[in-house]
Amino acid sequence: MNNAPKLFIETLGCAMNVRDSEHMIAELQSKEGYVLTDDSSQADLILINTCSVREKPVSKLFSELGQFNKIKKNGAKIGVCGCTASHLGKEIIDRASCVDFVLGARNVSKITKALYVPKMVDVDTSYDDSSYVFEEYRGSSLKANINISIGCDKECTYCIVPHTRGEEISIPSNLILDEVKKSADRGVKEIYLLGQNVNNYGRRFSGSHEKINFPKLLNLISEVDGIQRISFTSPHPLHVDDEFIDVFANNPKITKHMHLPLQSGSSEILKAMKRGYSKEWFLEKAFKLREIVPNFTISTEVIVGFPGESDKDFEDTIDVVKKVKFEQMFSFKYSPRPLTKAAEMTNIVDSNIADERLQYLQNLHRGQLRMIMASQVGKTIKILFEELKPNGRIFGRSNNFFSLTANGSEELLGLEKDVLIIDYVNGSLEGKVIV
Ligand code: SF4
Predict the structure, then answer these.
(1) Which of 86, 103, 413, 427 could share a disulfide with 81, CB 3.0–4.6 Å?
(2) Do 329 and 389 share a domain, yes or no?
(3) Any atom of ligand 1 within 6 Å of the Cβ of 196
(4) Are residues 156 and 186 in the same domain?
(5) Is it the case that residue 294 has pLDDT exceeding 70?
(6) Is residue 335 domain-resident?
(7) Is the residue at 133 inside a domain?
(8) For the residues of 70-102, what is the DSSP string, one character each?
(9) What is the 238 CA–ligand 1 centroid distance (Å)?
(10) Same domain membership, residue 81 and residue 64
(11) Last residue of one domain, picked from the residues 329, 357, 375
(12) 364 C-alpha vs ligand 1 centroid, how far in Å?
């Protein structure tokens, strides 16, 4: 075992990338005998699973490659995977000759092949591994990330994902259910379903498949014994229909939280973004979910400074944020991405104005968040404990996604306990386990 080849992997970006990294680890462990190391200077293989959603992680990649090249041991290989690999391809090797192979986000199932093909570059975004059954590896023993689709068919004008992950194909439901059952057999309590547009599931499979949609898939997964919770990311506001809301509200295993990316509160800007819905549509869905689903919480993503965004457009974004009171918000300044339509737009928003808007939006939300968190203090809520922190405290989440830390030991891992909320720090609660 000591002379097993060592793998160091760095994962940037979204939950889809985390699952892609788990897939590559699984293939390398079971087919090539690799063991994981968190010391890149000891690794025989260094993998960087990259993200391209904004410019910053891309520019960071090349400085990191320089660092890894300096510290890597003799004969060690460096591979670049993920979304930046998909859109830069061979350019990565041209700019960093220390790189041994480049594997796009749609091609991770070829990781073992890349070890034996010098300077391999495979960034084919039409490659279909939607029915490929990966070997098994999971970063958590209690929570399982499970892909339900690959790629994305939307054409949001600011987004590079369709260019790096290819067209949207749903993964056959029997393969998804097999993964859920295997996970339940191993003691997993929570299933985390992943896709660019999970509530568009079932629209297209690469082979013949019985008619199924996301609400039906959720109900099938909830019938698997041992699974206590089902959560998912990301649904698209456009596909939040009544059948989906009904199953979401009434299936007790589905966590009562939804990450619903707004992007902008202005219908004009939403049109320019090609999001397919309006301010009024988003508000109607958010209010309906708040009305129908007890203790419902919602998180979102907002871009400020999108080309053409006027003061009035920004006021519309602020108006939505004031009305919905998101329990969590990720907000960013618009970052032009290569290959996207928005990158060709000329009505650029002044960078300082965009900074001011982002500041204003984040200050507003910080104030809202303090009120939301303060209103939890004194309540007793059920927490499913999922992680022991290095400081010996225990971390878990409520059924509506509030995160919480408490004093407790690993015996509590995987258990759902009543917890009295005693305080909060930023976006996380502090609690006392009620024995
Ligand atoms: S839905 Fe839009 S923002 Fe989301 S991955 Fe697809 S193109 Fe990108």
Answers:
(1) 103
(2) no
(3) yes
(4) yes
(5) yes
(6) yes
(7) no
(8) HHPPTT-EEEEEEHHHHHHTTHHHHH-TT--EE
(9) 12
(10) yes
(11) 375
(12) 26
Domain that holds residue 395: 380-433
Locate the ligand 1 atom nearest the alpha carbon of residue 197 and give its number.
1
Distance of alpha carbon 337 from alpha carbon 191, whole angstroms = 32
What band does 1 get if pLDDT is binned at 50, 70 and 90?
Answer: low
Question: Pick from 95, 122, 149: which residue ends a domain?
Answer: 122
Q: Is the confidence at residue 2, as pLDDT, over 70?
A: no
Q: What three-state secondary structure class fits 63?
A: helix
CA-CA distances (angstroms) from residue 349 to 22, 98, 302, 306, 321?
39, 38, 16, 7, 21
Per-residue pLDDT reduced to its tens digit, 206-216: 988 888 999 99
- Establish whether residue 194 lines the binding site of ligand 1, counting it when its CB lies within 6 angstroms of any ligand atom: no
Check which CATH number belongs to the domain holding 50 and give it: 3.40.50.12160
CATH code for the domain of 405: 2.40.50.140
Question: Is the C-beta atom of 159 inside 6 A of ligand 1?
Answer: yes
Q: Is 149 in the pocket of ligand 1 (CB under 6 A)?
A: no
Q: Judge if the beta carbon of residue 9 lies within 6 A of ligand 1.
A: no
162 CA → ligand 1 middle, Å: 7
Ligand 1 mean position, distance from CA 156 (Å) = 6
Of the candidates 262, 255, 29, 277, the residue with the CA atom closest to the CA atom of residue 136: 29
Task: Say how far apart CA 376 and CA 397 lie, in whole Å.
Answer: 13
Q: How far apart are CA 344 and CA 371, in angstroms?
A: 41
What is the residue-averaged pLDDT of the chain?
Answer: 96
CB of 156 shorter than 6 A to ligand 1: yes
152 & 236 share domain: yes
Is 197 near ligand 1, meaning CB less than 6 Å away? Answer: yes
Do 304 and 361 contact (CB within 8 A), yes or no?
yes
Nearest CA to ligand 1 atom 8: 159
Q: How far is the CA of 196 from the centre of ligand 1 (A)?
A: 6
Q: What ligand 1 atom has the least distance to the C-alpha of 196?
A: 5
Q: Which two tokens stand for residue 235?
A: 């649904």
Q: Looking at the structure, do residues 89 and 145 belong to the same domain, yes or no?
A: no
Ligand 1 proximity of 236 Cβ (cutoff 6 Å): yes
* Residue 231 to residue 299: CA distance in whole angstroms: 13
pLDDT in tens, 217-266: 999 999 999 999 999 999 999 999 999 999 999 999 999 999 999 999 99
Whether residue 63 lies inside any domain: the answer is yes
State the total domains in the chain: 4
Same domain for 371 and 261, yes or no, is yes
Specify whether 73 is located in the same domain as 11: yes
- Which ligand 1 atom lies nearest to the CA of residue 263? 3
Residues 357 and 402 in one domain: no
pLDDT higher than threshold 80 for residue 314: yes
Query: For ligand 1, atom 1, which residue shows the shortest CA distance?
Result: 154
Which residues are bridge partners to 416 per DSSP? 384
